[in-house]
Amino acid sequence: MASVVIAGGGPAGMMAGLLLARAGIAVTVLEKHADFLRDFRGDTVHASTVRLLDELGLGAEFRQLPQSRLTGVLLPGTDSQRVPVNIFAALRAPYNYIAMVPQWDLLNLLAEAAGREPTFTLRMQTEATGLVTTDGRVAGVRYRSPDGAGEIHADLTLACDGRASALRRASGLCAREYRVPFDVWWFRLPRHPDEDAEIAGISPAFGRGEVLLALTREDYYQLAYAIPKGSDARRRAQGVEAFRARVAALRPDLADRVEAITSMDDVFMLDVRLDRLRRWYTDGLLCIGDAAHAMSPAGGVGINLAIQDAVAAAGLLAAPLAENRLTTDDLARVQQRRQRPAIILQTLQRTIHLAFGPLLSGRVTVRPPQRLLQLASRAPQWLVRIPARLIAVGPRPEHAPAFARR
Hints:
alpha+beta, FAD/NAD(P)-binding domain, seven-stranded mixed sheet, six-stranded mixed sheet, 11 helices, 21 strands, globular
């Protein structure tokens, strides 16, 4: 029987493992942590992923998970008021929203579903550290676990170990890197029970040299504060009081709860990167998700793109693996199918990034005129559908292969 070893138990790794196991392929997923209980920050489950879970027979279980739904954006208006623009209403129900779900809950759901397949193995606290090569071909991975170091041999190795991928580094595959002018501070503020916005949405706020983004969660707000690239240490040295004051000035409606930021230890820094491998594969190895194309948090599309990569990889590779005829041409077909969506979304992110330099330097201040806000809130559905579909569905969404449907 053909075998696959997957490095990384994130969304791409767990989805690929589930699908290949449903095809009868022997799959081993290596996850370096002891559990999935970490603050991933990337908790968006997009409309195309919700539809995919339905196709896999996991939709009912997914909807039982704690979650909130983002249905649009809340644009800054006058006097701290927010103008709702329900952009995802332009999409066809029931897939007309983005679900905000703790990523550990999603990963546990996928792990439990995969665990019901007899050919699936999940090894926690097992970190892929390098590649095993035989006659110039990747033949598996080296790993480290509490029981010591070892090797796992496989017909195919999938690198799903993120943008700091050890396997990508060991493979020597070259990436093209794009300049990013900012990093992101993530933090939380409590949400009061009576704060029922007209729509639960993505709410930006702008000041001179400052950008703050708030996402509505079940009982809290998840906030992203952009800082100039490489300024983390200098900004932290200013202290928590200075940061609380910044947040309160940007969002006066949240000033009554900034004390929830007890210290700068409550603020987590994301080193934002954007890159893409020129070639995603070598003989016996395929990189997908962030290991193939590190994404910026702009638009929150990275998780969805990684999951779509996993679906395409499983759909294209299951038959060659089952029939023991896998070649590099099969791996190339995965890149050919998924490279264009990655390019489209990274181009969108790079366009968004162009605005951050002037915004964070203070050369540009965003003050949307009321007339523009009115036009945005009354935009025709056909016009709204374009950005809504690009963000919530993505270019070239993938469907569950027939062998994986339940």
